[in-house]
Write a sequence for this structure.
């Protein structure tokens, strides 16, 4: 009887000890998992640090510094004066800024169809068994790795109204060439032509990679079913090429809003502001008129516009991009 009572009295104590051991084991396991996660995070930080530190110091920090400057009047020499959102309000009502945004949009409207259609045509042609295919791919890609200043100066010479190659060729067929970069109506189209020519190879390579990823079985099955060239292009190539098209669209629009080098080298924003774009306006405000605060505000306005356009594209791609 005494033994039974002793055993009964000891069972709660034993259960309590078991629960204590279990909780200690669970706590030790949680601490082990936490230590493992911390160790894994430290390893990731260690490997990312060589690129993350320069990214933060040379990109993120200047961005938010520019945001702070955008709320001030500053001529780069004297102390900054707080004006709040005054710079943004002035830019919204500034006719030159409005024209710069309009010219940037017009540039994209003219540039993207040229570079996409031309790049797609080259990609389709060089995806087939044409002679010297690899050589031609390198030739068409060469302008992409060429300095923009060199390309702009070459096109400035080609489109020279008085002795340029373009107007000479037009004169051979009895057409009087326009003033190109000296004419307010042709300055922006001149920049669009030069830009599309330079970026054609980049778009070609991206779309060519997309074409080569399309299974050839689909084309063979379509031929068996009697589908012609246009039907195969419409029902196979275009739908399967939408991921590459989406990438090209996003990159082209971002680069289009940031166009500067060719404008600066070919026209300088002229004549009479006909080819002024947003980044060129930022440059003028900063280094020509010493209005760093206003230029920083304009930079952030451009950043927010590009961000908005990119977000809209990311949301919209769910409806037309085929990742199957």
């Amino acid at each position: 009887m005494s033994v039974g009572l002793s055993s009964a009295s000891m069972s709660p104590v034993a259960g309590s000890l078991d629960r204590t051991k279990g909780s200690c084991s669970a706590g030790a396991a949680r601490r082990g998992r936490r230590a493992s996660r911390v160790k894994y995070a430290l390893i990731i930080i260690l490997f990312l640090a060589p690129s993350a530190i320069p990214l933060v110091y040379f990109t993120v920090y200047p961005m938010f510094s520019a945001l702070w400057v955008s709320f001030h009047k500053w001529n780069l020499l004297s102390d900054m004066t707080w004006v709040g959102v005054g710079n943004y309000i002035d830019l919204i009502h500034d006719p030159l800024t409005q024209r710069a945004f309009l010219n940037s949009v017009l540039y994209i409207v003219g540039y993207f169809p040229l570079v996409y259609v031309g790049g797609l045509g080259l990609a389709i042609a060089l995806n087939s068994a044409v002679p010297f295919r690899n050589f031609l791919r390198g030739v068409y890609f060469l302008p992409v790795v060429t300095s923009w200043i060199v390309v702009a100066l070459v096109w400035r010479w080609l489109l020279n109204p008085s002795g340029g190659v373009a107007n000479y060729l037009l004169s051979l067929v009895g057409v009087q060439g326009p003033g190109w970069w000296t004419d307010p109506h042709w300055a922006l189209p001149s920049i669009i032509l030069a830009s599309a020519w330079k970026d054609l190879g980049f778009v070609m390579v991206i779309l060519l990679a997309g074409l080569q990823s399309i299974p050839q079985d689909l084309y063979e099955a379509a031929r068996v079913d009697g589908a012609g060239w246009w039907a195969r292009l419409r029902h196979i190539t275009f739908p399967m090429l939408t991921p590459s098209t989406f990438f090209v669209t996003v990159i082209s629009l971002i680069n289009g809003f940031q166009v500067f080098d060719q404008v600066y080298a070919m026209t300088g924003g002229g004549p009479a502001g006909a080819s002024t774009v947003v980044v060129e306006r930022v440059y003028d405000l900063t280094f020509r008129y010493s209005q760093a605060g206003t230029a920083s505000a304009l930079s952030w306005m451009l950043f927010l516009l590009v961000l908005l356009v990119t977000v809209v594209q990311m949301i919209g791609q769910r409806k037309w991009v085929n990742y199957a």
Observations:
- The longest helix spans residues 2-69.
